[in-house]
Structure formats: structure tokens, C-alpha cells
Amino acid sequence: MIVVTGGAGFIGSNFVLDWLANPKAEGIINLDKLTYAGNLSTLAPLAKDPRHIFIKGDIGDSTLVTNLLQQHRPRAIINFAAESHVDRSIHGPADFIQTNILGSFNLLECTRTYWNSLPTEEQQQFRFLHVSTDEVYGSLGASDAAFKETTAYEPNSPYSASKAASDHLVRAWFHTYGLPVLTTNCSNNYGPYHFPEKLIPLVILNALNGQPLPIYGDGMQVRDWLYVGDHCAAIRRVLEKGTLGETYNVGGWNEKANLEVVKTICAILDELRPRPNGGSYAEQIRFVTDRPGHDRRYAIDASKLERELGWKPAETFATGIRKTVEWYLVNPEWVAGVQSGSYRDWINQHYVA
């Protein structure tokens, strides 16, 4: 067995589904707190799969985590569990400190105790893989080189600061205690099952519903976009082949300005689901007040992962974004299930002109 924390969230659930799509794969203990972004309907295809055991709980609950590890004796833990939305961290940073820092600390300590109890051979085979973000590196200028694993940390939001802290804890537990850890820092993910507060699903769904397509500031903030299926493949490769204590940047080699991303989505929707009036969805674009401390550019240099472990993304942005738009068009039931009243209230409060 392996343990996946945060396995009902966007990236975690995609990883669980991808992992168990292999009929020979090991089983997964899926621990998720089921906050607003956790969605069990995403995992519905696994309802009859005995290899998937879901446990509702918090990585900060030491008793729960300790008992889980002792009962199931996993050979690896993959930690996706995190509060991850920058806007929410600006308006409510306490949850990010609690989950991303204190929760990670607790998970590391419970894991260390469990790992120390294992026979030598099982200790040598065990892995703790911590999934993090490129936002810990701060913001880049237009001509700056992309983030490398050696780039100094300069987090600019409560979210990225909390993730930076968790990365440092993971590193310390390797160097101080010898815990066999691996860390991945990824760029912006997109794809199926993405909670619709994030840019790409928000734009798709607002466009279809005839609502404004909000873009912060001038829309020229640049991000490197990584299709979530490629990210899952990279994590599997790092888990299997990664060098203990090392960090691997995972990127899509797809730098795009937010405005270009939105216009690309509009063009695909114009083709696949034309508006009744014959106009373009781009007519719904609205520029809104920029958020505080908005990083201007992120870019990932993923060459270490390709050079050392032989991984590179399979999707271009053109192929990945089309797959994503098509998925939302044919899965309206999933969308309806996550668009609760509280979610709509939050969008109305924070995306204001």
C-alpha cells in the first residue's frame, strides 16, 4: 500500500485515479480532510475498487495518522494535502499556517516514528514524497531565467510562504533524521476535476453561463502551465527513481500570459459550443482590480527531471487545454456538484471590478 494525503483534491484525486487505472498497481490509503476543495464525487469511479480505501481526516491529527500508518504499513507517503489558493490565503491566512506548516510538521513526525519502527530493509525502501509549488521561488522579471531547484526562496503570499516553510521542514527531516524524502515543486496545473475558483475552470464555466470572465490587472501575468496528467506521471517517476533528499522542479514548458490563456479558451469554446448570438466568448472578458502582491511571472526549468530521470511532459498547452475544455463540456454533473452557494458567494466577494 501507499498513502496519499489530500487525495480528494484536484491534483491528488487525479493522481489516485491515474495510479489505480493500472490493474497491477498497489492499493492506496487516501486521507483527506474534505474541505471545500475536496470532492468525493471525483473518486466515484473507484467506489467498487477494493484497492482504494478512503479515510476522512486531517494530517494534523497525530492519533489518526499514527494509527493509519501502524495499521496499513505503507511503503510510501505522497503528501498532496495543502491549502492552495493564493486569494484565500490573502483573506484568511490562518488555515494555510495550520495545514501547510503545522499539518506537514505533524505528518513528518508521525512518519518518522513509523519509519524508525520498520525493519532495515523496509526502511531502505520507504519514501516520503512532498508535493509543493513553484510559488515558493517568488516572482520573475520578463527576461529572468526560469526557476531552478537551486533558486533562492522568496515567497510573496501567505500561501507560498506556508508552502516554503513546509519544504524547509521536509529538507530538515532528511538532513537531521535521515527520513527518506523527495520534494517536487510544480508549476500551475490544469485539467479535469479542477475546483472552479482557479483561472481555467472559472473562465470555462463563466463563459458557458454567460457571466463575465474576470482577469486580474492587465492580464499579462505569466505562468508555466502543466497538464495534471503530466504532473502525475512526473510524481510516479520521482517516487520510483528520485535521489533521496533531492528536489525536482516539474513544469510544462508552456509559459502563457493569463490573457492569452483566457482568449485561447474562448476560441475553443467558440468552436465547440458557439454562443447563440454568434459572438465570441471573448466579449465577456472583464478586467478587475489586481490582487495584492500578485507575482508577475513564474517559469520552471524542468531540465533536471528530464536529464536525471527521463521525464518530460507529453502534452503541449494546445493539446492539454483542448482536453480540459472538452472534459468540462461533457461533465456538467460534476461541475454542478461543486458549485455550492458558499462557493458562489466567495467568487462574488473577491472577483470585483
Can you give a write-up of this model?
With 353 residues, the chain is α/β, with parallel strands linked by helices. The protein has a domain at 2-194 and 225-254 and 297-315: NAD(P)-binding Rossmann-like Domain (Rossmann fold). Helix content is 44%, strand content 16%. It has 13 helices and twelve strands. It has helices spanning 10-20, 62-72, 86-91, 94-116, 120-125, 158-177, 199-208, 228-241, 258-272, 303-309, 317-330, 332-338, 341-350; strands at 2-5, 28-32, 52-56, 76-79, 127-133, 181-186, 188-190, 213-216, 222-227, 247-250, 255-257, 285-288. The strands form three sheets. A seven-stranded parallel β-sheet has the order 3-2-1-4-5-6-10, sandwiched between helices. A three-stranded mixed β-sheet has the order 7-9-11. Helix 9 packs across helix 11 (317-330). The termini are far apart. The mean pLDDT is 93.
Features:
353 residues, Rossmann fold, seven-stranded parallel sheet, 12 strands, 44% helix
Assign the structural class, choosing from mainly alpha, mainly beta, alpha/beta, alpha+beta, or little secondary structure.
alpha/beta
Estimated radius of gyration: 20 Å
Question: How would you write the strand order of the largest sheet?
Answer: 3-2-1-4-5-6-10
Q: How big a fraction of the residues is strand?
A: 15-25%
Which helices and strands appear, and what pairs or packs with what?
Elements: E1 2-5, H1 10-20, E2 28-32, E3 52-56, H2 62-72, E4 76-79, H3 86-91, H4 94-116, H5 120-125, E5 127-133, H6 158-177, E6 181-186, E7 188-190, H7 199-208, E8 213-216, E9 222-227, H8 228-241, E10 247-250, E11 255-257, H9 258-272, E12 285-288, H10 303-309, H11 317-330, H12 332-338, H13 341-350
Parallel strand pairs: 1-2, 1-4, 2-3, 4-5, 5-6, 6-10, 7-9, 8-12
Antiparallel strand pairs: 9-11
Helix pairs in contact: 1-8, 2-4, 4-6, 7-9, 9-11
